[in-house]
Design goal:
Distance between the termini: 39 Å
Number of domains: 3
Number of helices: 4
Order of helices and strands: HEEEEEEHHEEEEEHEEEEEEEEE
Helix content: 25-40%
Structural class: alpha+beta
């Protein structure tokens, strides 16, 4: 009985030993490598680029005063529509003391001349009524008197403009009224009531009272890398998307490509501008960040495969083509247009050919998170 029991133990040990050997042998054998199979087929392919930029109005005008003064009243605020010639602000004039003094002196001198001219005219008229002077002499004195009156009126008007910013004879065209020079939307009014403003001259740009723009005429302004600018031509369509407006895009047409590069973060870039088709139902604000997608190249109905199937050997390009026996053979191909995912095959493959893709990585049985035996 003991002998039988001993044989049983030996048999169990032998089975365990053989099983362990078989298990280790199977695990030590290399698994057959499997690859994804990719099929060559006809399709459309495009090479596109995305340009970052911003939306700006084509015409953005800074409205500035015609005289120096202080803002006494603001009639408009940012966000309101304004028509050409409409008053945005009113000024209270601060006259230049030298100019004011000169204007006052001119008025006094004009009044003296007028008084003397009137005296001469009255004397000459009395003589003319008695037929003691000729028509020519009378007409000459009358002309001098009329000129003196005109000079006095001009001097008085000049004084009123310098002192008050407006004359009685030209109240509607007062320089104390800051008017919009275009019809559009007021983007900004950077001044407040009580602020001093100055007119533009050769020494400074003057104070901006308001910024007005036509928001119905917008452009996309961005920069493109020098490696891609050669593919652009004026008139190319663009798809504009605005980050601040979700699920919104609009069309644009390229209308300007800068002839000169600007350096941006060490790269040469060229400014481009495109006319944006404004949507009256969407409130597009000046300065919105936007992306423009441009199709640089396009090919219809060409043979394409995923670009991941390509391998390179020097200047030559290859794929591994699956044969009828299921084995893969290295085959040279000629490539064309690529969109970054798929690539055009111009020669070396036919429709329906299967090429080797990326290696399939299998999870080991019993691994954490994977299938268990």
């Amino acid at each position: 009985m003991k002998r039988v029991f001993k044989y049983i133990i030996f048999a169990l040990i032998a089975v365990l030993f053989v099983g362990t050997f078989v298990f280790l042998f199977k695990n030590s054998r290399p698994e057959k490598t499997e690859y994804q199979e990719l099929t060559a087929s006809y399709g459309d392919i495009s090479r596109t680029t995305v340009i970052t930029g911003k939306i700006t109005p084509r015409n953005e005008v800074n409205i500035k005063p015609q005289i120096n003064g202080i803002i006494s009243e603001l009639l408009k605020e940012a966000g309101q529509q304004v028509k050409e010639g409409e008053v945005i602000a009113k000024l209270r004039v601060i006259p230049d003391m030298n100019s004011l003094s000169s204007a006052q002196s001119r008025v006094r001198l004009a009044e003296i001349n007028l008084k003397q001219a009137k005296t001469n005219y009255d004397r000459e008229k009395a003589l003319f009524d008695k037929n003691l002077v000729s028509h020519e002499e009378y007409d000459q004195v009358l002309q001098q008197y009329e000129q003196a009156k005109e000079e006095q009126a001009a001097a008085q008007e000049s004084l009123e403009v310098i002192r008050d910013g407006v004359s009685k004879s030209n109240a509607t065209g007062s320089s104390t009224l800051v008017r919009s020079t275009i019809t559009g939307l007021i983007l900004d009014i950077p001044v407040k009531v009580g602020n001093s403003v100055i007119q533009a001259n050769t020494m400074n740009d003057g104070t901006t009272v308001a910024t007005v723009a036509n928001m119905a005429d917008l452009i996309f302004d961005g920069n493109i890398d020098e490696t891609e600018v050669g593919s652009l031509v004026e008139g190319m369509p663009m798809q504009i998307s605005i980050g601040a407006i979700s699920d919104y895009s609009t069309q644009a047409a390229l209308e300007y490509i800068s002839p000169k590069a600007v350096e941006n973060n060490g790269a040469n870039q060229f400014e481009i501008k495109a006319a944006v088709k404004a949507d009256s139902e969407k409130m597009i604000r000046s300065g919105y960040s936007a992306n423009a997608e441009i199709v640089l190249e396009h090919a219809d109905s060409v043979l394409v495969i995923p670009e991941s199937a390509l391998e390179f050997d020097g200047d030559d390009t290859f794929v591994y083509l699956k044969g009828e026996d299921g084995e893969y053979s290295k085959t040279q191909v000629t490539t064309g247009l690529s969109d970054g995912l798929n690539i055009e095959i111009r020669s070396g493959l036919a429709e329906g050919d299967i090429v080797r893709g990326a290696k399939i990585i299998k999870e080991k049985k019993g691994a954490k998170g994977g299938p268990k035996a």
